[in-house]
Protein 1
Amino acid sequence: MKSFRFRGSDMIILIGGEKGGSGKTTLACNLAVWGAQNGLDLLLIDGDPQASASRFFERRDESFEGSVTCVRKVGDLYATVQAMSGRFDAVIIDTGGRDSIELRTAMAAADILVVPTQPSQLDLETLIYLDQVIGTAKSLNPGLSAHCIISRAPNYPNSIEVQSAKIFISALENLSLSRQAIKDRKIYRDCFILGHGVTESKNPQARGEIQLLAQEIFIDSQACV
């Protein structure tokens, strides 16, 4: 039984960006597992040619609570998303770390775009161009809501690097700063190898991070509809 209810039919969530290594697939898989745990009938579209999300779900033990339908699709994702419309409670799309046809066509179909970024200058500077791409996408898809989450953040409090990243992101025109940050914790890598979500682990810090991010994406965003 679902622990919450969506307005309307499916919610389409795109996890994307231009920079590799930011933790996009890790977030996509963990959000999908959280959704399954909470009773959602959920589809994950693996739009990354590396197919890491697909392999994650191949490793996943069927005895775990909830199930996720995972399909691989590269190229134009708009038609794929439209074909799946109304068949699931939520659709999560994972695209590779580059400006691609998968990223751009998924933006045209998505309700929410989540862009993970590491808090380094090298990663942050890629957001300037991506912010312009999102602006173009919003002209075609006015309902698109775009959020940037700091991921793989230093695992200690009051990081100057994180604070500087927050200021940088807050100055962007089309990306809003997520309330939640994801720390660089080994548990994420350990769980990914096993096909587990961190919300299925005994690590309270990682569980809390994903639960709060999921609430922001799946629940709080619905209040703004």
Protein 2
Amino acid sequence: MDNPAGRRFRSRDWFADPQRSDMTALYLERFMNYGLTPEELRSGRPIIGIAQTGSDLSPCNRIHLDLARRVRDGIRDAGGIPMEFPVHPIFENCRRPTAALDRNLAYMGLVEILYGYPIDAVVLTTGCDKTTPAGIMAASTVDIPAIVLSGGPMLDGWHGGELVGSGTVIWRSRRQLAAGEIDEDEFLQRACSSAPSAGHCNTMGTASTMNAVAEALGLSLPGCAAIPAPYRERGQMAYETGRRIVGMAFEDLRPSRILSRESFLNALSVVSCAGGSSNAQVHIMAMARHAGVDLRPQDWTDEAYDLPLLLNMQPAGKFLGERFFRAGGVPALMWELQQAGRLHGDCASVTGRTVAQNIEGRETSDREVIRPFDAPLMEKAGFLVLSGNLFDFGILKTSVISQRFRERYLNRPGHEGVFEARAVVFDGADDYHARINDPALDIDEGCILVMRGAGPIGWPGSAEVVNMQPPDALIQRGIQTLPTLGDGRQSGTADSPSILNVSPESAVGGGLCWLRNGDLIRIDLNAGRCDALVSADEIARRQRELPAPPVPASQSPWEEMYRNHTGQLVDGATLDMALKYRRIAEKTPRHNH
């Protein structure tokens, strides 16, 4: 690609500094040992980083080890020079005590690479839940041209002639195991059947949600998020992404020129009408804060709660990723929103065109999967923000509230949307697993299960443990779900009706720390309230008499650093000292010798 504007890329400060020829030689020489030439690196062509998130420790993203070849081809063909580098691994299913610790760690590492090395633009490879926000957060901090390439979901899972969605089948099979309907071998077979190929979760869990968010924000090429990992279109998308990032480098099309309040509101709308993950609240807030965009927690309710559920995809619906792709993917969802006047179509994107231009003519061909705006799967299926005397912020994903749950709790004549339940409180997941089947707790369908000690400081990192299932005895009686509440998170693939991400958490003195077994909790979805029916005087007395909240000792240096610098889930659990750093690539680092 020509450089008509004669743009000088930041990598020239490494490889063509007329004031320090000695340093230029030092920077150049070691790149020669794998075949690059001085002429390439001093040519004025942009050096394009490929942030490689795939590895054996990141199975959901491992497809990128192959896709990177096509990204390189696209970069070279468009006139750029590719340089691939590793990103700290993030694997939701395997990382203990939680992969939430890794998002901020990967963010910091990526910031240092993008800032401290001769990289002019970057392809962010994504897939598993937190790889997407980590990359976007870092690109926003550094502010060099960046484009997101998802690795794509796995192929649809099948078992016994039925669709089995990754993650979602785990939670449903757990209940069937507790009810005695299946044995452990059947459980394992179902789990394995749900993961039939390379790729991330094939449900609309956090991985699919966050890659859809990247596309809704305008940071991916149209259609990128939904292409299944093994499909030929995925390799073609990798090639086109490589080509496009070179164009973005010449155009100086940086995140700060794409991301806006309106683009983030588009993302909230897509998550809501897709039945997306409640974890999106945490990650979208973190990305907005690092981008310097004014996004407020209440926006989830004020801007997107009244949106209908349009996507018929597990866990809120029936189908899986392949069918979503064939139905048109994210552009088809955004087209529905635009037709209804619920999309900011003038937002910028990595294509250099507006969002409206990107989705022109992208109406779905499969109305069983993507429903019309005026004939949805569910009305008002967005996220409700709640507050009360127990917390300042909590969020409820309404699209997974089953009809049976609504009839039991939310449809009392004269009290629609309001119910009261007796609290059964657990101090962390270990306490829950040890005591959930204890008959002395006397858990019945009039109870709400409460998890505390699961937030960013208490866990640490905030764990996906709030989607607690009822005692085995209740499940055997046909009661599959109870309301749950906690200061942690839950898997985006779960179908539990939970009040999540409660802030402030109990470990920092939030209201859950004084809650006791047997307290009545009143939940009013109409007013957005969640309150313990405990007098103000009694609350004050409990607070005075409470010991310091129990917080397990940190087990690693990073856990201690994380606890000392990370905020609450309501604000995205970001690192406090990191938010002041924006557009740092505008200043080149000093020489190293």
Protein 3
Amino acid sequence: MFTAEETEYINCSADKNNAFFEVWTKKESFVKAIGTGLTIPLDSFSVLSDTTRYDGKTYCFKEYSVGEDDYKMFVCYLS
């Protein structure tokens, strides 16, 4: 489901739960931004940086904190 680098990032993180949801929500926002949904293999692209490329285009991620419980979300948009 994740690239080898993303899996390593999660496994080496002091807060694995937070790292997992960071990667997952970035991937979810990316597949929504490109319009494929979960039909694209999630290990076919990486979201470890603030940008990723797909089909010759650059997409950026913006992180937002939501609510008082330190929830976070990512929005992916075309650069």
